[in-house]
């Protein structure tokens, strides 16, 4: 299993790692700063610098469901490093930081909409959450409520809750279709002070002020009780 350095520090831009395995167009490391696709958040892209100075472009990162290893995907035909080789892994920081801001903004929106989450997706230009809602919320009121929490610059903290504590507090889980992974003893959580607290494995900013102002885009009807709310950066 790959050690996930980004879980404790989302601001790590690079790390030194050892190649544990290679398969097809994937490179597996003993540890990584690259976030794998999951929870609606895209996987990281970036570069590997090899011991001979050669640079490999990593197009995407996904997680092997069976082994827990992170598969750093490169273009077909790319010469791969040797197992045991030491490399420097560096993420595309501007892209990651944009996704961190978006992800945290969605947590704030989740706290302002009184409905269970039925789906979601995080993007660079637009992100969205789907809610189990009978009525469409007012776009301006929702945007004002979210932007107020952003302006307040509230701290965002990473912590953990035990499996048993989560089972005793099922209301912490806002998603209807996807439950956080359990069985390891603890589940990672994200807390935005006085705003939101829920299990989440994604990467986030340290304070809401880093997000910057947002606006609400389309609110789409995706079923009898399903409303899709799109969010954009205001700038």
TrEMBL record:
SUPFAM superfamilies per the UniProt record, alphabetical: ThrRS/AlaRS common domain (SSF55186), Translation proteins (SSF50447)
InterPro entries assigned to the protein according to its UniProt record, in alphabetical order: Ala-tRNA-synth_IIc_core (IPR018165), Ala-tRNA-synth_IIc_N (IPR018164), Alanyl-tRNA_Editing_Enzymes (IPR051335), Thr/Ala-tRNA-synth_IIc_edit (IPR018163), Transl_B-barrel_sf (IPR009000), tRNA_SAD (IPR012947)
Segments passing through the bilayer: none
UniProt keyword Metal-binding, yes or no: yes
Principal location: cytoplasm
The protein's required cofactors: Zn(2+)
Residue stretches making up the Alanyl-transfer RNA synthetases family profile domain: 1-235
Keywords: Metal-binding, Zinc
Subcellular location: Cytoplasm
Signal peptide limits: none
Domain of life: Bacteria
Gene Ontology annotations for the cellular component aspect, listed alphabetically: cytoplasm
One BP term from GO: alanyl-tRNA aminoacylation
PROSITE patterns in UniProt: AA_TRNA_LIGASE_II_ALA
A GO term for molecular function: ATP binding
PANTHER family referenced in this protein's UniProt entry, alphabetically: ALANYL-TRNA EDITING PROTEIN, ALANYL-TRNA EDITING PROTEIN AARSD1
Name of this protein: Alanine--tRNA ligase
Record organism: Terasakiella brassicae
Gene name of the record: alaS
């Amino acid at each position: 299993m790959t050690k996930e350095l980004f879980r404790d520090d989302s601001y790590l831009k690079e790390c030194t790692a050892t190649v544990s395995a290679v398969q097809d167009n994937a490179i597996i490391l003993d540890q990584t700063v690259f976030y794998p696709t999951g929870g609606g958040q895209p996987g990281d892209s970036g570069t590997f610098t090899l011991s001979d100075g050669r640079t490999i472009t990593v197009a995407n990162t996904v997680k092997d469901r069976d082994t827990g290893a992170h598969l750093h995907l490169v273009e077909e035909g790319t010469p791969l490093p040797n197992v045991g080789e030491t490399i420097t892994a560096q993420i595309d920081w501007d892209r990651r930081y944009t996704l961190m801001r978006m992800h945290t903004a969605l947590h704030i929106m989740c706290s302002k909409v009184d409905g269970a989450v039925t789906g979601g997706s995080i993007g660079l230009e637009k992100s969205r959450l789907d809610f189990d809602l009978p009525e469409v919320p007012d776009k301006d009121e929702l945007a004002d409520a979210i932007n107020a929490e952003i302006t307040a610059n509230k701290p965002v903290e990473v912590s953990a809750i035990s499996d048993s504590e989560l089972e005793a507090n099922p209301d912490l889980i806002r998603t209807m279709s996807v439950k956080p992974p359990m069985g390891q003893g603890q589940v990672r959580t994200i807390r935005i002070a006085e705003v939101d607290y829920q299990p989440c494995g994604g990467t986030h900013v340290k304070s809401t002020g880093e997000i910057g102002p947002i606006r609400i885009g389309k609110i789409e009807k995706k079923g009898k009780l399903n409303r899709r709310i799109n969010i954009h950066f205001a700038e």
